[in-house]
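User: I'm curious what two different proteins look like when written out as structure tokens. Can you demonstrate?

Assistant: Sure. I'll show them one after the other, since each token string lines up with its own sequence. Here's the first protein:
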Amino acid sequence: MPRKYLEVTVEPRVLIWARESVGLSIPEVAKRLKASEDTIRKWESGQKRPTLMYLEKLARTIYKRPFAVFLLPKPPEELPFPNDFRSLPPDKRKPFSSKTRLAIRRARRLQSLTAELARSLNRESTLKIGRATLSDDPEVVANSVREQLGVDLQTQFGWTDENKAFNEWGKAIEKVGILVFQIGMPLEETRGFSLTEGEFPAIVINLHDSTNGRIFSLFHEYGHLLLNNSGICDMENPAYLSEEVKSIEKFCNHFAGAVLVPRNALLNHELTRLKGRLSEWPDEILKELAKTFKVSQEVILRRLLILERATEGFYKRKHEEWGMKAKEAKKEQRQKFLFSLELGYRLLLKDGATSNALREVFVNNDLSLTSEAKITKKDDKHWKIKDGNKIYKIEDTDTQLNIYEQKGGGRQNPPKKCIWENGAPFISLVLETFREEKITYRDVADYLAIRLKHLPKVEQLIRGKV
């Protein structure tokens, strides 16, 4: 019997668990699967059975689970989410998106694979980090960590820019046995998270954050590992968080700043020493200090505040000013759309081949789409049109549809993405296990989530990193 007709018996609870664990609603699944909502509901209630073709698509492209999972008699047990340290009030926090949920799942799988591959090679964890408590002085803990990482001020000041700084800090952290992964997630949900469980703790950084933001997140999450407290963070510390969470976030923020900008190094810097305690610090000085330490201006000013060289009022004003500038820059970027449409045109935004009507809309706006152009729905507010090497993004702003051209569309670099997401230590471990003939080529492609044709370039890049 053809797969499109062959039905598969699946425990309804497994289907519900698979959908909810990836953060999707029944309508969202129905649209991605190109099936009716009623069909999905009947599968989940046990009134109907999915066909093999539908189940394979659910497993592979929507729920991203091994097919065998759907043959289990009940949902498997999984570790709970890390603690939610986001700064929004609990009643305003939205559930994590599927991208963030998949990032957490991916990071945990990489942790598990690291342990499994290390055992196959008779390797033990090289973890060399200590522990800290909230009663410890973050300045003292930071000095100890810097010494352990082996990064002195001369080395730090000699790095060419923030990108070099991030790479070098990351390598130093990996050398003490911590896994570092960079995975893209919605920045409004999290800047990073940490996973303390198992032999190989991990720091996961949001690839969409700024370089300075990622540098700070490295050590904020390092602080969580020292406290043995996994968390999903956005680095804010508003008044409405619980006292316990505020204490944890305050410690991690203080610790991160103290590692990146040590007390004596800042106070003895000629620009700081000459100015003493100012009520207001000129932007030129903050910029120069930030450039020296390879951090943001806000990290510098926060350190000056903690070290009693700046006032709380000035810090708050600058914090608000920088926040407004960031919002304006984002707003300006959002305004650079090619053209806009009324919301009624949402009816044309259906997954698959673009319609004649949609292609005509582009023509009317002095653009063109070929008959090969495909449209993909990313979520309820965003779509992507891929037409050869051109990629267009469509955003629903609640008042209109904005159409943007994605710069650099179609020119992703899979080998570099592989290294960002998996980290050099994990990739090296996978390659070594393969050379020892303990895993197959197919395993390598699966573990690294990359096509085998890109593997030689990955190996070449890794040789330059380890």
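Here's a second, unrelated protein for contrast:
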Amino acid sequence: MIVHVPQCREASAALRVSLSGLLGVWILVIPTETIRADDSRFGSATPATPTAAADESSSPRRWTLTSNVEWSHPGIGGSFTITRGSIVGTGTRISVDSLGLDEAHAFGFGLRWDWEAHGLELRYRPFSFSGRATTSDPLIFHGVTYPAGETIETDLRLDFLTLRYDFKLVDRDWAEFRVGPQLNYWRFSARLHSLGPSSIDDKRTFASSMLGGFAGGEIRTSRLHLGGEASLGWNLGDYSLIEFIAYAGMDWTDSARLDIGYRSIAFDMNATTNDGDFFVQGPFVMFSLAF
């Protein structure tokens, strides 16, 4: 028995070494597996850092909403014929210049939504003209005769509501060019009121819509920009609209800008025996604010 004691001691020592090794492996492996399991439950093995979260929150927004208000000071020219019941002879050709209409002080507004290269815009531009003039010849308006020599007070109004979609064919830091279709709704009304002995007062209103298209663009520096656009609308030859706009302006801030420009509109109306050719043109000032 004495001879075999050293061998038992050696075996016991070897056993203790083996158990210690296994325990060390268990200590190293088990926590590692536990951490991996916890990470998989949260869906990521790498936790997000504050820098990554800040970069994600500061990424640029892909859409912009812009509103604008406009003041314009246009004049009007042209002529029109308004009959009663589409009967020939119940209306004479009336020149706008003979009515003594003053230039208008018109206010309009618009709303625009941009998403990457796409844009959707709504514009409302009302133009109202009024004046007085003494007629040298009789006028027949809507079947009513206004005697010569009487002073006539006239209110003439043209309203345009435009909905358009555009796509940026060119989109650079210094320039852009957009094209797209548009829908125009227009409304024309004329009221003639005699201030003479006849005291005749009559009014006629027309309204319709027409499809069309437009193209426009601008060039820019850091704060200044110069641009223009042209649009066309038509409705089976009965109505047509041609509009040209040129403007220049500056960016006050990243979201606010001011534009000064000039607008020219040619509008043709042909509804059976009622027709008119009008030219509206003049300067405008527009302020825009982006959100």
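A detail about the second structure: The helical segments are 5-41, 50-57.
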